[in-house]
Design brief:
Oligomer: single chain
Largest sheet: 3 strands, parallel
Number of domains: 2
Structural class: mainly alpha
CATH superfamily of the largest domain: Periplasmic binding protein-like II
Order of helices and strands: EHEHEHHHHEEHHHHH
Amino acid sequence: MKAISRLSCAISLVVLLPLSATAGEVEVLHWWTSGGEKRAADTLQKLVEAQGHKWKDFAVAGGGGEAAMTVLKTRAVSGNPPAAAQIKGPDIQEWGELGLLADLNDVAAEQKWDELLPPQVIEVMKYQGDYVAVPVNVHRVNWLWINPQVFEKAGATPPTTLDEFFAAADKLKAAGFIAIAHGGQPWQDGTVFEDLAFSILGPEGFRKAFVELDRATLTGDKMVEVFA
């Protein structure tokens, strides 16, 4: 793929474009601003600077990346995108259609990405068969953090299904505990919806609904149950 702008994307987080042999400044747009996230960004910065380049930090906090994406779109439309950007994996294809992704095939071949990366990650990192992104973080949404001591006191069993989750929550509430803590931010609401949809629709149904946009699945009884 022929790139028309120096913008690249990643699965969830920061991507660095292949750098030339000559030392230069690399502007990186990202939303890694909280404690642990910033330490990760600082580590990437050290790796870049160890190669003789200068990291120009462009951190945009807030909204799980929504604010950063607004800034990125404005910069891209004006013809002045940063050298690298943090972008969630599913959005890579949309940016590819705009012709704003850089070809990373040479770097991928040199570092043997095809051998090192899982097929699922490779699929996300490519646009029309070309590597255009560097995976630095992989998110999963269908997991649950629990307090074992609280579960033990309430006589509840860690759930593995949605029905078991509600049963455990009832026991936790009856024992005087808060059953589930939720931040209430838009991206967190979206994650809870994805969890419910994945649990009720199953992996294949989830893919049909939200990847393939299959109308029968989107309007079926199981989807109605998701919103019930």
